[in-house]
Design goal:
It is a single chain. The protein contains 10 helices and 10 strands. It is an alpha/beta fold and 285 residues long. The strands form 2 sheets. It has an 8-stranded mixed beta sheet, with helices on both faces. The chain has a two-stranded antiparallel sheet with strand order 5-6. α8 links the parallel β9 and β10. The N and C termini lie far apart (49 Å).
């Protein structure tokens, strides 16, 4: 018997940027012909966390701030799956920031989409770690800039729901990076909250598309960091494919195999009885 999951209808506010992130992800899954049973979407807590209910693939709602270790476990358990983690800037950059840094350096082959709106929309508009000018004497966190400083990062990009063609291209590139087992693809999506932090217009003036610069070399980390710093100092925010490189992956470090993934191994007692007895003997008092 075949059971088909019917995605729920989105409940975001009318005009919410998250509709654009959802649409781009759905388009890219279609563009790359990724079947629903070959993908798994895991989401964090917050308005953005509802996205896994709206994609017709396997899904999981993770604990607040813990979507990345959970997604890493899924990718390790079955490397044949295309694993997509999704969440908001509060979930990913506040309670989840420690996990983000360690996922950068471990470089597992999964995609992380962070919908950045600079606010905690689900809890009625408190400023998040990326809030610009909303908290006196505090500076906003730039997760892409952070990723550039961590050796082992292999894909860093930023898109905007107001520039959908580019956003779909970025999701396509990120998913291809992941499916080629090149490591962790990090994509921040500027996704304004029209209810508590409606800054669509200001983002259009701040974003600078590095993809439009023929001289920009996204594979040279040193020059990327320099260009990034210059743009930030000038009041601009880089968007597009900011950095893509190569580094050892989590799968390589742990010896994981798509041909014999842990999730599909036979763990029956009868097959492993001798190994279980050896373990019992080792720990016998």
């Amino acid at each position: 018997m075949t059971v088909t999951f019917k995605p729920a209808s989105p409940i975001w506010c009318s005009g919410c940027g998250h509709y654009g992130a959802e649409s781009a992800l759905k388009q890219s899954l279609g563009n790359l012909a990724i079947a629903p049973h070959d993908a798994m979407v895991l989401a964090g807590i917050g308005c953005s966390g509802f996205i896994q209910n709206y994609i017709g693939s396997y899904g999981y709602h993770a604990l607040h701030g813990r979507v990345l270790p959970t997604a890493t476990g899924v990718a390790a358990g079955n490397p044949a799956l295309t694993v997509i983690a999704a969440g908001g800037d509060g979930d990913g950059y506040a309670i989840g920031c420690g996990h983000l840094m360690h996922t950068f350096r471990r470089n597992p082959s999964l995609l992380y989409i962070v919908m950045n709106n600079g606010t905690y929309g689900l809890t009625k508009g408190q400023p998040s770690p990326t809030a610009v000018g909303r908290v006196d004497h505090e500076h906003e966190l730039d997760a892409v800039y952070l990723g550039l400083t961590i050796p082992g990062t292999t894909f860093l990009a930023r898109g905007f729901v107001g520039q959908m063609n580019q956003l779909v291209d970025l999701v396509d590139s990120a998913l291809t990076h992941v499916r080629d087992k090149r490591g962790f693809a990090f994509l921040e999506v500027i996704s304004p909250c029209v209810t508590y932090n409606d800054n669509f217009a200001s983002w259009r003036g701040m974003l600078t598309n590095v993809d439009a610069d023929d001289s920009y070399d996204c594979e040279n980390r040193t020059t990327v960091i320099g260009n990034y710093a210059e743009l930030i100092a000038g009041g601009k925010v880089p968007s597009g494919l900011i950095y893509q490189g190569s580094a050892s992956t989590f799968e390589e470090a742990t010896g994981l195999s798509a041909e014999n993934p842990p999730a599909l191994q036979d763990l029956s007692v009868t097959k492993h009885i001798d190994a279980y007895r050896r373990q019992m003997d080792m720990h016998a008092i």
